Amino acid sequence: MTVRTELIEAARRGSAADVESLIRDVWPHAFRIASGILHDRALAEDAAQEACASVYLTIAKLRRVDAFKVWFYRIVARQALAVRRRSPSAVAPFEPAVGDVREFERSVVRLDVVAALARLSPAQRAAVVLHFYADLNSREIARVLQIPDSSVRFHLMRARRALERTLGDAESGNRTFAEAIAGAV
Known about the structure:
Layout: H1 5-12, H2 16-38, H3 41-58, H4 68-86, H5 101-106, H6 108-118, H7 122-133, H8 138-145, H9 149-167, H10 174-184
Helix pairs in contact: 1-2, 2-3, 2-4, 2-7, 3-4, 4-8, 6-9, 6-10, 7-9, 7-10, 8-9
């Protein structure tokens, strides 16, 4: 996720137009992270909207512009996990958000990855989504999820093993595995 530093700074100063522009820029990322964690389109929309509303209300409290990415992902992950706790249907398989039907038809592997992600625990799924889609390292994920770095590494290790077992050897190569997960979220 790349957001212009000037836009974050302007939003921090309280310009409503700049905050709205910032929200428009980060919305797709919020939705994809929430979708990856929740595996339910409607619940992901709710979580992303709640996260963006929280950003709107609290952006002025952000102390450092360079901390925006981790701060934002923490808000999204918290909202997604909160929505998941409130709704038992959040673990059911979902149809990924796809704008182009032809793209959907070309990505059969994507459906396998989505199903495999749905089988992970919420903590593992959050760690995987934040690592492979948001490209956060374990220290950043630990700050987002507010858990120890060692717990993040453990969740990633367990999730990777489970995904490799589910997806088989064809998807377990480093580049293909990472791309398949990032593309499925």
